[in-house]
């Protein structure tokens, strides 16, 4: 670190949390049953919509409400995305997400407690697609001492948009040069934080995070 770190911003997916493979499988089975398309096709369309949303995040810095993303998915199956149908799929996803939640390693939770002891605050800054930031918070983040959370579906901006990183400065009350952002995406996390004047570290997966946190 080139400057002292007083606040840490963490990406969620594949940085803080490991997606649960059981959720991915159950989600595709749910979609297949409700759309009458086979698993191969629903998986293909799901990944296509996710890539479309990820590309818009990287290139345009746009964030979308979860309902909008699910609506785009339903259109791929020739289903008109009215409020009832979107809500039905959304609730199905949420139920499965809570049944098969993402995994936050115990060593990461221990490392975050060490930051607490050092007086270093931390937050989550993450892009979302099919699962809302609210659901993520209520399912896996509620028992960790995050100062605040920032999710693209709530802010309607996404990393690497500078508005997301400016929010970290605003909410933390820490100078940007004393903020460290950690994530797994070179563009959304690395380039975004660099342009915002923050320190940053790009990691490959959550197994590396605890070591990085303990080194602060």
Count of DSSP H/I helices: 10
General form? globular
Which spans of ≥5 residues are poorly predicted at pLDDT below 50?
none
CATH topology of the largest domain, anyone? Rossmann fold
Overall domain count: 2
Order of helices and strands: EHHHHHEHEHHEHEH
Q: Mean pLDDT across all residues, rounded?
A: 96
N-to-C CA distance: 8 Å
Question: From the alpha-carbon coordinates, what is the Rg to the nearest angstrom?
Answer: 18 Å
Task: Give an overview in words.
With about 220 residues, the protein is of the alpha/beta class. It has two domains: about 120 residues, 3-Layer(aba) Sandwich (Rossmann fold), CATH 3.40.50.1000; about 80 residues. It contains ten helices and five strands, in the order βαααααβαβααβαβα. It has a five-stranded parallel β-sheet with strand order 3-2-1-4-5, with helices on both faces. Helix 6 links the parallel strand 2 and strand 3. Helix 1 packs antiparallel against helix 4. The protein is globular, with a radius of gyration of 18 Å. The model has no long low-confidence stretch (mean pLDDT about 95).
Brief digest:
The chain is 54% helix and 11% strand. With 216 residues, the protein is an alpha/beta fold.
Keywords:
Rossmann fold; 10 helices; 11% strand; 216 residues; 2 domains; alpha/beta
Write the layout of secondary structure elements.
Elements lengths: L6 E4 L10 H15 L3 H22 L5 H10 L7 H17 L6 H13 L2 E6 L6 H9 L6 E4 H4 L6 H11 L6 E5 L2 H10 L3 E4 L6 H6 L2
Helix pairs in contact: 1-2, 1-4, 3-4
């Amino acid at each position: 670190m080139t400057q002292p770190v007083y606040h840490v911003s963490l990406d969620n997916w594949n940085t803080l949390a490991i997606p649960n493979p059981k959720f991915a499988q159950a989600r595709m089975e749910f979609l297949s049953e409700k759309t009458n398309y086979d698993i191969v096709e629903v998986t293909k369309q799901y990944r296509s919509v996710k890539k479309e949303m990820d590309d818009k995040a990287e290139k345009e810095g746009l964030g979308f409400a979860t309902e909008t993303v699910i609506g785009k998915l339903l259109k791929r199956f020739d289903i008109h995305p009215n409020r009832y149908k979107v809500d039905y799929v959304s609730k199905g996803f949420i139920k499965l997400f809570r049944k098969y939640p993402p995994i936050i390693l115990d060593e990461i939770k221990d490392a975050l407690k060490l930051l607490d002891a050092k007086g270093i605050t931390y937050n989550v800054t993450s892009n979302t697609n099919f699962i809302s930031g609210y659901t993520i918070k209520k399912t896996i983040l509620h028992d960790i001492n995050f100062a605040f959370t920032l999710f693209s579906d709530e802010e309607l901006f996404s990393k690497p948009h500078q508005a997301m990183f400016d929010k970290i400065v605003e909410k933390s009350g820490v100078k940007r040069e004393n903020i460290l952002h950690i994530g797994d995406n070179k563009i959304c996390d690395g380039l975004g934080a660099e342009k915002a004047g923050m320190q940053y570290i790009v990691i490959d997966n959550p197994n590396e995070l605890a070591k990085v946190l303990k080194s602060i």
